[in-house]
């Protein structure tokens, strides 16, 4: 069942990205990179595991995943905020 | 059930977010929508119960603080470095999640074991490969192609060792052997990440960065299989697929296959190009000004050199002077100019250049003969006519910006050294090319003052 979901999502990802103009490649990449921080959800579960080693690994994963998520979304927003059409406000 | 529903909502928000990210008008909102999806997934997981709150708060605060500071303080010119590092932390997190899950429950189905192996393998390669890419982009590691003694042999040996460890791990075995196999897998994968990125030259970095992006997504997806968590599987595979598409676009923009980038080719053989004959014609600031002053149609072609010189603001100023003088100014952006996909676009956006002024090679090439002046700023391979004319050139077949067809071409360049690929550029000796030697920012600023003092 999960494999089915996996394959469908792969195809969807290909369809979504195929026609993106090249000027948006960087924000698209850093924005989708932030989504790959979804592993944060896995880290939450791992950090709450019963074994000490599992918890330590989980908390480490949590830190790295949070850096990925928070850093990724914020920096994407910072970039996109600079993209302006000609009619847009100057400076 | 409620958790699954929340994950469905999160997945829908991710999909909508990515879709909106693909259009300039909606991109910023798309990013917010996608962040909303992340919030839904995280909050739903947190309230599902059984959480070790103390450690979770510590992890979220530490990670959040590091991420916030990094995102807020990074220079726009250092964006490729940051994106590489973020890819790496995502990959590392997925690898750690899979390891932690295996530790908590070492016995599982073969399918679960395969997912653990893949999450750890791909995640580790993404992590060490990204650190390596960061090192190259930040200048801590030589940006050119670096080859160790017996490089190919070492890579193959590492790969075989990885594969053997993976097979041992998936086989139903006592957990002591599994742990050993896991250790070998992690170490070989981490070293493989380094040895795979080390020989890749700076000009191929856009491909490497997008491939690492795909890997971090794939690793998250595999971790999702380990946890039997649909949110990770869906979001991870979306990112994996989009990263691979981006990688493919980058490869096609260089007319190269992914295998060629990863396993040598151009970076291994920079010698194949023909010797370029002819004299370069330098031009003084004042003469350059007179030509620009008379131009009605100007195309600016930025490259990595513009980023290095931090010249984007000066370039925009020059464009404004030209426009005030009645010229039409466009910026022609090659998809692989710079060190990550869309690198030039970000820098020009930072300098307040409107995105309507940015054009792609297919839009500008057919009318290049109507361009009075093409100003090449720190770009080299993407304007090298050998890609069109010299079948023996390693660049042959790569779609380029045909600036040599413009009436006059200015090339701003620090020196006559060849570009990152080490390939000679016959553009520099064409009869209608004029060289402006020096730091790109100083040269452009000097041209701006010529206009102001006129």
Q: What do you see in this structure?
A:
- The complex is a heterodimer of chains A (91) and B (454).
- Chain A has 91 residues and is an all-alpha fold.
- Chain A contains four helices and no strands.
- Chain B folds into three domains: 1-73; 77-263, no CATH class; 285-453, Rossmann fold, CATH 3.40.50.1220.
- Chain B is 59% helix and 6% strand.
- Chain B has helices spanning 2-21, 27-46, 53-73, 79-104, 110-137, 151-170, 175-197, 205-227, 230-253, 258-262, 285-293, 304-308, 312-324, 343-350, 361-364, 386-389, 440-453; strands spanning 297-302, 328-332, 358-359, 373-377, 408-413, 433-437.
- In chain B, strands 3-2-1-4-5-6 form a six-stranded parallel β-sheet.
- In chain B, strand 4 (373-377), helix 16 and strand 5 form a beta-alpha-beta unit.
- In chain B, helix 11 (285-293) crosses helix 17 and helix 13 packs parallel to helix 17 (440-453).
- Chain B is elongated and about 80 Å long.
- Chains A and B meet through helix 1, helix 2, helix 3 and helix 4 of A and helix 1, helix 2, helix 3, helix 4 and helix 8 of B.
Question: How would you sum up this structure in a few lines?
Answer:
The complex is a heterodimer of chains A (91) and B (454). Chain A has 4 helices and no strands. The longest helix of chain B is centred in the first third of the chain and has 28 residues.
């Amino acid at each position: 069942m999960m494999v089915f979901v996996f394959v469908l999502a792969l195809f969807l990802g290909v369809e979504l990205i195929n026609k993106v103009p090249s000027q948006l490649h960087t924000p698209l990449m850093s924005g989708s990179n932030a989504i790959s921080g979804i592993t944060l959800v896995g880290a939450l579960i791992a950090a709450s595991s019963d074994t000490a080693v599992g918890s330590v690994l989980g908390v480490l994963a949590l830190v790295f995943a949070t850096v990925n998520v928070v850093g990724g979304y914020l920096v994407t927003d910072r970039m996109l905020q600079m993209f302006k059409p000609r009619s847009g406000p100057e400076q | 059930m409620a958790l699954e529903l929340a994950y469905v909502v999160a997945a829908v928000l991710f999909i909508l977010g990515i879709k909106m990210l693909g259009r300039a008008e909606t991109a910023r909102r798309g990013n917010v929508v996608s962040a909303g999806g992340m919030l839904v997934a995280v909050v739903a997981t947190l309230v599902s119960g059984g959480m070790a709150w103390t450690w979770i708060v510590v992890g979220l605060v530490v990670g959040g603080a590091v991420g916030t500071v990094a995102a807020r303080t990074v220079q726009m010119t250092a964006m490729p470095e940051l994106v590489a590092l973020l890819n790496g932390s995502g990959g590392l997190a997925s690898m750690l999640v899979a390891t932690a899950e295996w530790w908590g429950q070492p016995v599982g189905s073969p399918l679960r074991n395969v997912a653990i192996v893949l999450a750890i393998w791909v995640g580790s390669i993404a992590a060490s490969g990204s650190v390596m890419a960061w090192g190259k982009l930040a200048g801590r590691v030589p940006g050119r192609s670096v080859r160790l003694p017996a490089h190919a042999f070492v890579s193959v040996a590492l790969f075989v060792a990885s594969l053997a460890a993976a097979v041992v791990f998936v086989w139903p075995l006592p957990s002591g052997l599994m742990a050993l196999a896991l250790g070998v897998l992690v170490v070989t994968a981490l070293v493989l990440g380094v040895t795979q990125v080390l020989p890749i030259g700076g000009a191929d970095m856009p491909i490497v960065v997008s491939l690492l992006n795909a890997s971090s997504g794939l690793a998250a997806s595999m971790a999702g299989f380990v946890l039997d968590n649909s949110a990770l599987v869906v979001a991870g595979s979306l990112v994996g697929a989009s990263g691979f598409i981006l990688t493919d676009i980058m490869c096609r923009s260089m007319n190269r296959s992914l295998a060629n980038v990863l396993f040598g080719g151009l970076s291994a053989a920079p010698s194949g190009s023909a010797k370029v004959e002819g004299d370069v014609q330098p031009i003084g600031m004042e003469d350059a000004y007179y030509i620009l002053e008379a131009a009605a149609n100007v195309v600016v072609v930025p490259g990595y050199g513009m980023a290095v010189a931090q010249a984007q603001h000066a370039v925009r100023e020059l464009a404004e002077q030209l426009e005030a003088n009645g010229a039409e100014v466009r910026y022609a952006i090659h998809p692989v100019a710079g060190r990550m996909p869309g690198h030039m676009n970000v820098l020009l956006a930072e300098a307040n250049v409107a995105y309507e002024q940015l054009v792609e090679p297919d839009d500008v090439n057919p009318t290049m003969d109507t361009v009075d002046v093409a100003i090449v700023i720190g770009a080299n391979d993407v304007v090298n006519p050998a890609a069109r004319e010299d079948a023996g050139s390693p660049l042959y077949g790569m779609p380029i910006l045909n600036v040599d067809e413009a009436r006059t071409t200015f090339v701003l360049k620090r020196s006559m050294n060849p570009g990152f690929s080490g390939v000679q550029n016959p553009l520099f000796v064409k009869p209608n090319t004029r060289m402006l030697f020096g730091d790109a920012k100083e040269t452009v600023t000097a041209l701006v003052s010529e206009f102001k003092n006129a």
